[in-house]
Design goal:
Length: 273
């Protein structure tokens, strides 16, 4: 029999839950007070929740306790940034049938390594995941290989890898054979891509559905702009983030004029007064 979690931690969890209400169907489209509406939603079997435990000193044993909590099965968004449960905690999350509804998982700034990503990639229960936040960890090419090979995570639409040691080797993996064909937003800020990393991304067929690409803080210069302008890798791109790189005004004009980037509406570069 599973142990019950401590009253203190249970109180923290309950106070950190918020209801994610969908559009009301006909049965709920009557005028209620907010309190009545929330009570109805919370009592409904269809109710789903966001659980925000960012920076709450959550340890491995707390993760284990959390997974015994009945309400966790209704959580669609789980935010666990800046905690202390490590790779072991992620492995426990990945192996829990309680998280089958999960669509958003945030594990930023948790000192995680590629081992955590490998656990997520082979989870039998995370196939509904759409958004995965992994920024500020220690995830390198091995972790990215697990991601790209994962049929479980093939439905991901948003992937945050900012501030991880991706490098050109990791970029090559992202650009190679990959299950991640549904990505809409890819965040690679400060990942040491360099020009070679960008080159392989620009030669890939994996990013045909991408609408946002963040390349901020990667030491890129006008040579990167040449690559982007001549690449047919990003036909649906709407937002291109090149903040904190060394991009000249002339190169910005080149980007704006490129027929391969004609869908771009938001070009983010450092302002030059």
């Amino acid at each position: 029999m599973a142990e019950m979690m401590s009253p203190l931690f249970e109180s923290l969890v309950k106070n950190s839950l918020t209801v994610l209400a969908d559009e009301p169907d006909d049965s709920t489209a009557m005028v209620w007070s907010e309190a009545e509406a929330n009570a109805e939603i919370e009592n409904s079997e269809k109710a789903v929740y966001k659980l925000d435990l960012i920076d709450k000193e959550v340890l491995m044993e707390d993760v284990e306790d959390l997974l015994t909590y009945d309400g966790i099965r209704k959580v669609k968004e789980l935010w666990l940034d800046k905690n202390e449960f490590g790779n072991e905690g992620v492995e426990a999350l990945a192996n829990s049938p309680q998280l089958k509804q999960l669509m958003v998982l945030s594990l930023a700034y948790n000192k995680l390594t590629s081992y955590s990503v490998q656990s997520l990639a082979v989870s039998p229960f995370l196939s509904h995941l759409r958004k995965l936040f992994l920024q500020g960890n220690r995830i390198g090419p091995d972790g990215l290989k697990s991601l790209t090979e994962s049929t479980v995570l093939a439905n991901l639409q948003m992937l945050y890898l900012n501030l991880n040691p991706v490098g050109s080797a990791g970029a090559r993996i992202l650009a190679g054979e990959s299950q991640l064909q549904n990505l809409r937003e890819l965040y690679l800020q400060k990942t040491d891509l360099g020009l070679e990393g960008l080159r392989v991304l620009c030669e890939s067929d994996n990013f045909q559905n991408l609408t946002l690409l963040s390349l901020a803080g990667n030491g890129l210069n006008d040579s990167a702009v040449d690559l982007l302008c001549h690449s047919k890798a990003f036909p649906r791109l709407i937002t291109l983030d090149l903040y904190h790189n060394r991009i000249s005004d002339q190169a910005v004009d080149q980007l704006k004029a490129s027929p391969n980037l004609k869908s771009v509406r938001a070009l983010q570069v450092d302002w030059r007064g």
